[in-house]
């Protein structure tokens, strides 16, 4: 099998093209599965007679599961291989989510969501690891657009969930039917993924310590650890910027800027739409300019736009600012994962799992911090986290490569 360097040529073979389509399908499925549940939350609350606090705590279990299994997801991918883990976990996620519809109590619901979060983090690590395998065969960036397809899947899944709710389709029927289709697709797509070991497409080829090679010294391990932390924080900065739009933009527009109810959600929609566009179109830009330059330009764009939006304090300026934020942050997480996968001295998938855990921690901590600051001062002041996180991302982007190694 050709190496990651020798195998690069303009004519990508059929096996690699099929693998790209397969991993793209898994990204779409991953985005669609959980998103289809979100529009049905009110029914779950009513069926189980939950308070908002009880339901919020149950949903937080998803993040807890993702964080817990995310810490070891890279080791599991390294043990079993990204191809196998990617399609198997997609099937398991589809089956597990059906249990949400029949959960008889808060405890069962919370347990199911903990498992769902853990499986999702494992699927996420495996899909990214395999996508980077395919990317090395292509010799140019493809990961950014694959993350864009995840966003498309989330929009489609959420739309199907809303449609099913409007038509009165029972939640168990919706999750069962969609899960069956996507699980079946995952099994079929798994047969099209790249064969062989994840090490086959790496430039270094061998695992650390394998084949009689020397294990990395303490200084090298510390350097790698710092790189993992820096890249994880870069991904976390992107997650904080995204969550600001998802969690706080409707509240800020409605309560602080007195936007109409129909307008309050436009900040989130604008951010998600522009981020999806940036990801679908971002591979060519990243291949041309490199992850570091694109991430820094995006950080300046996002931070500057939000600072202007907050100073202006108007509904149109705020919606436009969130749209620019989405445009700026589109490559942050794919770039951090690509750089993590290239770190020396680590088995394939391990660094991906560790780096991907830091943004999951930000999902749990970020909203709490913003809420505390908003209660003590104002939400407008608390949203200064957006330009601050963008400034942090600009500095952290130093850990990214200048030009892609695959493009050299």
Tell me briefly what this model is:
This protein is an all-alpha fold and 408 residues long. The chain is built from 16 helices and no strands.
Topology:
Blueprint: H1 14-35, H2 41-48, H3 52-80, H4 82-102, H5 106-138, H6 143-167, H7 171-190, H8 218-256, H9 261-264, H10 266-289, H11 291-312, H12 315-329, H13 332-341, H14 350-376, H15 379-382, H16 385-396
Helix pairs in contact: 1-4, 1-5, 1-6, 1-7, 3-4, 3-5, 3-14, 4-5, 4-7, 5-14, 6-10, 8-10, 8-12, 8-13, 8-14, 8-16, 10-11, 10-12, 11-12, 11-16, 13-14
- What profile does the largest beta sheet have? none
- SSE succession: HHHHHHHHHHHHHHHH
Overall structural class, as computed from helix and strand content, comes to mainly alpha
Taken from the alpha-carbon principal axes, the silhouette is globular
Low-confidence stretches: 1-9, 205-213
Radius of gyration: 21 Å
Helix content: over 70%
- CATH secondary-structure class of the largest domain: Mainly Alpha
CATH homologous superfamily assignment of the largest domain: MFS general substrate transporter like domains
What is the averaged pLDDT score? 87
CATH architecture of the largest domain: Up-down Bundle
Taken together, the total number of domains comes to 2
Number of strands: 0
The fold-level CATH name of the largest domain is Growth Hormone, Chain: A
Distance between the termini: 21 Å
Beta strand %: under 5%
Number of helices: 16
């Amino acid at each position: 099998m050709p190496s990651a360097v020798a195998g690069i040529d303009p004519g990508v073979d059929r096996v690699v093209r099929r693998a790209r389509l397969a991993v793209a399908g898994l990204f779409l499925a991953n985005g669609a599965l959980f998103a289809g549940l979100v529009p049905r939350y009110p029914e779950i609350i009513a069926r189980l007679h939950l308070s908002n606090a009880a339901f919020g705590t149950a949903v937080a279990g998803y993040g807890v599961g993702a964080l817990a299994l995310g810490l070891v997801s890279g080791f599991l991918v390294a043990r079993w291989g990204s191809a196998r883990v990617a399609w198997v976990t997609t099937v398991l996620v589809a089956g597990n989510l059906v249990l949400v519809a029949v959960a008889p109590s808060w405890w069962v619901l919370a347990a199911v969501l903990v498992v769902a979060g853990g499986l999702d983090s494992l699927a996420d690590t495996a899909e990214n690891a395999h996508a980077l395998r395919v990317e090395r065969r292509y010799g140019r960036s493809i990961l950014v657009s694959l993350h864009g397809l995840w966003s498309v899947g989330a929009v489609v899944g959420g739309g199907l969930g809303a449609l099913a709710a409007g038509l009165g389709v029972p939640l168990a029927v919706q999750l069962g039917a969609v899960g069956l289709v996507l699980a079946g697709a995952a099994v079929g797509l798994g047969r099209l993924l790249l064969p062989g070991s994840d090490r086959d497409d790496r430039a270094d080829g061998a695992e650390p310590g394998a084949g009689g090679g020397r294990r990395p010294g303490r200084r090298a391990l510390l350097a790698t650890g710092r790189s993992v932390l820096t890249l994880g924080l870069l991904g976390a900065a992107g997650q904080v910027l995204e969550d600001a739009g998802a969690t706080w933009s409707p509240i800020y527009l409605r309560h602080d800027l007195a936007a109409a109810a129909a307008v309050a959600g436009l900040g989130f929609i604008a951010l998600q739409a522009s981020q999806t566009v940036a990801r679908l179109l971002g591979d060519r830009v990243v291949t041309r300019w490199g992850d570091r330059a694109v991430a820094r330009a995006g950080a300046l764009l996002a931070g500057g736009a939000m600072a202007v939006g907050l100073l202006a304090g108007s509904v149109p300026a705020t919606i436009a600012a969130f749209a620019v934020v989405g445009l700026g942050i589109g490559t942050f997480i794919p770039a951090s994962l690509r750089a993590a996968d290239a770190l020396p001295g680590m088995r394939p998938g391990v660094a991906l799992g560790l780096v991907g855990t830091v943004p999951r921690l930000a999902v749990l901590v970020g909203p709490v911090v913003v809420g505390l600051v908003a209660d003590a001062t104002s939400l407008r002041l608390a949203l200064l986290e957006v330009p601050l996180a963008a400034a942090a991302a600009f500095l952290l982007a130093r850990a990214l490569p200048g030009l892609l190694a695959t493009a050299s």
